[in-house]
Amino acid sequence: MTENELVAKLSDIEWEDFEVKAAKSELPKNIWESVSAFSNTSGGWIVLGVKQSGKTFEIQGVDNVEKLEQDFLGTLRSEKFNQRLVVTSKRYDIDGKKLLAFYVPEVDLKPVYFGNPVNTFIRMGSGDQRATEGEIRAMFRNQSFGKKTEETIPDTSIDMLNLNTLKSYRFALSQTQNLVNLREVDDAEFCEQVNITRNGLLTYAGLLMFGKSPYVLRYVPTFCVDYIEIPAPTIQQAEVRYTYRIPEQDNIWEAVQIILRRFRTLVDAPIHIKDDGFATHDESQYKVLREALANMVMHCDHFDSLRSCIRVFTDHI
How many C-beta atoms lie closer than 10 Å to residue 151's C-beta? Predict the structure, then answer.
């Protein structure tokens, strides 16, 4: 952040990636909340020597730049935080007053907290908010979930896959221009090439995507892709809990195919007549839902007992 950029920010309201502290000679106690919040969200600048009054900023400066800088950086390398944090520090001289700024980047392994996990903060708008228990739990799961799905499962093989499911997937793939070079290979080679198996062992991702139900539930007993149609605008207004709920499916691919067919019946696909007289269907609503569904099944935590669920109301999904 250049001096001109800093001055520009000080003439505006406090930004999501920008926090000021009136630190004359000591670090403010709530500075660690901002460190945690920026680390757990999208990163940001902490500027010392500026007092905020409402929506205005007053440059007061700091007395001992070297001491404040060493105290701040030293704390980040101490046992105060649950992991070592690397930040960038900069000094400014504006109107004869010294300011000290630190850029705190977002980290890969969240949560970042000080003392104990209850002191986990996230950035919401221009303020720091204490993370909820659910948000903290989700951060811990996210540390390992992506790696977990890539792991192989001992004593497994392609025989544990629902080969009809795999056939359905390969047919759908053949209707696109993706993985053209794998269209003619056998199932075993295909599974190795796309990480369904590795050295003959199933990955968790491969099992979740194409496995037979008994094996999926043996290794991931919390697995479920849930979908419910509720005959009202809200749950409270519904006279019955639901009119349709997807039966339990073997795997992700089977569940997705059923949900996509339900989506087809729910969304509008208006016909547009082009200038040449040919008609086309506007499938934008369906495509948005398809993309959202793909993101949900890819990024939800199938190893957690808290299940992701699609709820279809009479006026929204």
Answer: 14
